[in-house]
Structures are given as structure tokens and as C-alpha cells.
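Entry for the shared binder. Reason: the reviewer on the internal report wants the predicted structure included alongside the sequence.
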Amino acid sequence: MGVTANTVQSYSSTTLKDDVQEALISISPTDTPFMSAIGSRNIDNTLFEWGEVTLTTAAVNNSVIEGEAAPGNDAATLPKRLSNYTNLSDKVVEVSSTAEAVDGVGDAESMAKQVAYKLKELKRDMESMMLNNAAGVAGASGTARVTAGLPAFIRTNAARGTGGAAPTLSGTTAGFPNAAATDASNSNLRAITEAILKGVVADIWEAGGDPSIVLCGASNKQTISGFSGINTQYADVEKRTSYQAIDFLVTDFGTLKVVPNRFTRARDVHVIDPNYARVAYLANSFTKAAC
């Protein structure tokens, strides 16, 4: 059937209003599993410190006579002073008065929306920086301070592979990480295995930790889900569902939640006891208008 002459069709119209979803949907991920797991604290200086206490090895011969007249003093149990530097971050956005006034799609052009987006971006930046293998930097005039990342604090209970080495501190046994961990060379990279993971978990437990989280990127998460002996992949025919993932590992030393993190380096797998880490804030986020 033909079209009547002079019928206006949508194909030729130049004034149709776009059917655009008013609420813009961001496809960028904003979840920050590491920051969410470890909690936060407030500090009052750009260099902040905390104590690390190591108890002496348990003695099997701690037996004394009854009524001992002059027991000798034991060495005091003193903490080591570890430290880190704060890191300043910013996001700069400029919105013209016209852009603020127009009725844009989802009001994305407004200053309020731009500030909201930038705060989300800052949160992603923080997660990425805290999981980066970076040493701390004191900063100076013209040089930014840098917060040392988690990998730069892991000196023991690690499986680094051939060529890998532990990070160093600014002092002999104390201070801030002044050199990041040395990664194994690319030619010595290896896939995570059940034996490697179990070995690290055992080392942490023997050192006094109670790990509860395994933090890793996409590739390592899929490798862990394929561990033999602990993963029975099966299908639920009625629900038309195939189960091929491991979200929890029940080990000899407790249950660990396997958490994928988009901001963990692809080569890293972190076994974490979240009781021993905090996000330290010197000042809260704020907005500042330029004149």
C-alpha cells in the first residue's frame, strides 16, 4: 500500500524531540572493595605513624623455681614506629553559566552533577593508589607527596616469585616504605596456584594474622575459581544455571572471601586481615570555587 501524498513521516522530520533517558547511567564502576573492607581513621599530620608490636617467640622452657628471690628482667616489648605520607588529590571542573542554565539531559552539565561525578572519580583514584606498588614520597616545594601503597608495606608472608624482593623502609626496621617491592620479571611471572595461596595463608596465620579476604583482579579470580579439588562445577537444570565460581575458600585457618577488584594490579593477589589496615584522612573532601 502506498503513502498518501504530502504525508509527513518521521524520517523527514527535523524537529522531533529525542527520546533520551533523563537519568544518566554511568557504566564506570565505583565499587572500592579494599577501602570498604579496612575502614578509616583521622590523623593530624602529613606524616602519620603507628606502632607495630612483635611478641617474642613462645618459650617451651619458661619454668622458674618456687619463691625465686631475684628474677631477672625480660627485655621490654616495644613497638616499631611505621609511617606513611598523606596524598593530596584533586579534580577540576569548569561549568559555564550558560551550561548551568540550560535544561540538559540528566542535568549532566550542571555543577552539582559534575562535582558528584568527580567525587566518584576521586574514590576510584584512591582505591587504585592504595593498591599500587608505590613507595612513599615526603614531597617538597614543587614535588607532590605520595602515599605508599599496600604492596610497599608487605615485607613478609609473601610469595613473589623469581627475581621478586621485599620493599624497604626508611629506617632499619621502622619508618615509611622508601622503596616499593621488586616485582618478579615478566619472564618469571606465574599463575596463582592452590599451593601458593595455601602457603601464604599458612604463613600469615603462623605470624599471628587471621586473614579473611583474598583480593585479586579478573584473571586471578577466574584462576582461583578453577582450582582442582575444591571446586565442583555443576549445573542446576531446573534453574538453567551453571555454577563455575569460587567466592569463599574454607582453609585450615579460616574462611576467606575471594573478592574481585578492578583496581588491583593484574599480577597481584592480596591475602588480607582487614584489622591491620585503615584509610587515614587528614582532611575531608571539599569543593572550592575559583574566582
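Summary line for the report: The chain has a mean pLDDT of 87.
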